[in-house]
Design goal:
5 strands; Rossmann fold; about 35% helix; single chain; five-stranded parallel sheet; alpha/beta; about 230 residues
């Protein structure tokens, strides 16, 4: 039997990363997951990540503390209001307050370190450049640049024994397409968490960009969103 190739996925607990994990497994990868506790206000997503990792039987799930709240600068890591009730045109007009400075660069670097230690040369990320809030570190040119850097900055890359690949299987999919694909692969969306500003009980606000995009995606996919939303 041909052994499974190993891969590492950045698992946030949201529906995108859960679907990317399912896709990686469907392609024959033995997947280890990395989740980051980075001082985010929606730390409940880490509970979701643990649920997903268990339900998908990942090979290993590492949860690492990197306190980006020490720097602030984002509505997710500082006392800055999370934008609410924005229309799609507003979402794409500027980089939103929920952008965390250099977050994906920090996260991918940690995923690269994790992957190198376990002999994995494929890294998956649930980045999406369509139904998303315009983050600069979700663009294809950024991911291509990080992949090139990974092959310059690692022992295996320098020795030429292996080549690193950054996989972003959702990059050009709409949220509805992501949800349909996840459904096909058996993703338990009820275990995922997307909200940027949940209430103390963990209920989604239903009004932040992430909630609105999630609700729109389920509606366009013709499916019911199993997430629990706070009364508004």
């Amino acid at each position: 039997m041909v052994p499974h190739r190993q891969a590492v996925i950045l698992l946030s607990g949201g529906l995108d990363s859960a679907t990317a994990l399912a896709i990686a497994q469907s392609e024959g990868f033995a997947v280890s997951a990395l989740s980051l506790s980075y001082g985010q206000r929606h730390a409940i997503e880490l509970e979701a990540a643990r649920r997903i990792a268990r339900s998908r039987a990942v090979a290993r799930h590492a949860v690492v503390d990197v306190d980006l709240a020490q720097f602030g600068g984002s509505a997710l890591t500082a006392a800055i209001d999370v934008p609410k009730d924005r229309v799609p045109a507003e979402m794409v007009s500027e980089i939103p307050a929920t952008y965390v400075p250099a977050r994906n660069t920090v996260f991918l670097s940690l995923a690269l370190a994790f992957a190198e230690t376990i002999g994995a040369f494929d890294i998956f990320i649930g980045a999406n450049a369509l139904d998303y809030s315009g983050y600069p570190d979700c663009r294809p040119e950024y991911l291509d640049a990080f992949e090139a850097m990974a092959n310059l900055a690692t022992k295996a890359g320098v020795e030429g024994t292996q080549r690193w690949r950054i996989h972003a299987p959702l990059l050009h999919m709409t949220k509805a397409e992501i949800i349909r694909r996840g459904t096909e692969l058996g993703v338990e969306f009820a275990s995922t968490h997307s909200c940027y500003d949940p209430d103390p009980a963990g209920k989604a606000c239903g009004a932040c960009d992430s909630c609105l995009l999630r609700l729109k995606g389920f509606a366009e996919a013709g499916l019911r969103d199993p997430a629990t939303y706070a009364d508004r």
